[in-house]
């Protein structure tokens, strides 16, 4: 047996077969295709007139709610552990704004004023009046809902009634005025930034309304919603019980995106949301 023949045999023995190479290439291609498909589905399960942008905020596991006033940097988040954080533009990190008191809910006004509902032995409503200080404005209960347009216009529900609050510069306190005499069950309220109108979700069938007065509400939806955020009587966003995000403008609800856990809209009409499949990241929707 010649040396040349042995060399050929050894080369053939150690040479990977075409079938093995093709097999691993196929697996790699398949996995890559799945990843690309998931990315495609995420960014294309959205209204074609909008584009999705991942905001460069640090990951915060378990974001339960987001809200914003002006621009993009005045962003607040509430986590599943009931901690409230505010984005610090200079430090590029979220700063905790409640070290001990569990926060049940919060809302941000168009001027950046923040109202929160806390539970520390009893339910109370507070408004932020300095970097790390909050002042008490009202007692509350587990059914209280809160919303704020700005420092001078605040809404809460208490014992199934709506109260409107104005800041009194003489006493430096919020003065409350009861709006409705009959009891009504409110699942959520939202004060519209642009005109001060009040939207709400009824607790029974979870339909959306615009509050007019004690005897008049204007229906805004025929389906049930679990979250709303209003800009005016003619502009709001909402999330239904299928986790679809909708935008209402001048009498029309337009589908925006599916798989949305929570969303908000700033004073300029830019929409921010948390995806239900990944509540660590915050996304921004912009119109093309």
What does the model show?
- The strands form six sheets. This protein has a four-stranded antiparallel sheet with strand order 1-24-23-22, with no helix packed on it.
- The chain has helices spanning 3-14, 18-44, and strands spanning 50-54, 63-68, 75-79, 84-88, 93-96, 103-108, 114-120, 122-130, 133-139, 146-150, 153-158, 161-168, 173-178, 186-191, 198-202, 208-213, 216-219, 225-232, 235-240, 245-249, 252-257, 260-265, 271-275, 278-287.
- Strand 10 and strand 11 form a beta hairpin.
- It has 288 residues and is mainly β.
- Helix content is 14%, strand content 51%.
- It folds into two domains: 3-35, no CATH class; 51-287, Neuraminidase (6 Propeller).
- Keywords: Membrane, Transmembrane, Transmembrane helix.
- The chain crosses the membrane at residues 21-43.
Mean pLDDT: 83
| Strand fraction | over 45%
Note poorly predicted spans. 1-42
The CATH H-level superfamily of the largest domain is TolB, C-terminal domain
Cα radius of gyration in angstroms: 26 Å
Number of helices: 2
Approximately how much helix is present in the residues? Answer: 10-25%
**Number of strand elements:** 24
Just name the CATH architecture of the largest domain.
Answer: 6 Propeller
Main beta sheet strand tally, sense and closure: 4 strands, antiparallel
CATH class (first level) name of the largest domain: Mainly Beta
C-alpha end-to-end distance: 74 Å
Protein structure class: mainly beta
Strand order of the largest sheet: 1-24-23-22
| Overall 3D form | globular
CATH topology value of the largest domain: Neuraminidase
Number of domains: 2
Task: Give the assembly state of these chains.
Answer: single chain
């Amino acid at each position: 047996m010649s040396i040349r023949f042995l060399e050929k045999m050894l080369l053939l023995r150690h040479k990977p077969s075409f079938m093995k190479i093709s097999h691993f290439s196929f697996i790699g291609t398949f996995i890559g295709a799945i990843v690309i498909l998931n990315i495609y589905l995420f960014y294309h399960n959205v209204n074609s007139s909008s584009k999705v942008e991942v905001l460069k905020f640090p990951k915060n596991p378990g974001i339960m709610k987001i809200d914003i006033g002006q621009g993009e940097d005045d962003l607040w988040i509430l986590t599943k552990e009931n901690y409230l954080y505010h984005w610090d533009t200079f430090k590029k990190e979220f700063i905790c704004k409640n070290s001990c008191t569990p926060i049940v809910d919060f809302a941000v006004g168009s001027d950046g004023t923040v109202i929160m509902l806390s539970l520390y032995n009893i339910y109370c409503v507070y408004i932020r009046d300095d970097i790390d200080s909050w002042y008490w404005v009202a007692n509350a209960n587990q059914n209280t809902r809160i919303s704020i347009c700005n420092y001078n216009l605040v809404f809460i529900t208490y014992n199934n009634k709506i109260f409107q609050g104005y800041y009194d510069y003489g006493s430096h306190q919020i003065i409350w005025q009861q709006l409705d005499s009959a009891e009504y069950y409110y699942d959520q309220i939202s004060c519209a930034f642009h005109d001060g109108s009040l939207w709400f979700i009824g607790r029974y069938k979870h339909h959306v309304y615009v509050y007019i007065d004690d005897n008049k509400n204007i229906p805004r939806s025929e389906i049930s919603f679990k979250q709303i955020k209003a800009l005016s009587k003619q502009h709001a966003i909402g999330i239904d019980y299928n986790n679809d995000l909708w935008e209402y403008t001048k009498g029309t609800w337009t589908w925006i995106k599916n798989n949305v856990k929570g969303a908000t809209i700033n004073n300029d009409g830019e929409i921010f949301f948390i995806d239900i499949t990944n509540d660590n990241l915050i996304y921004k929707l912009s119109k093309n």
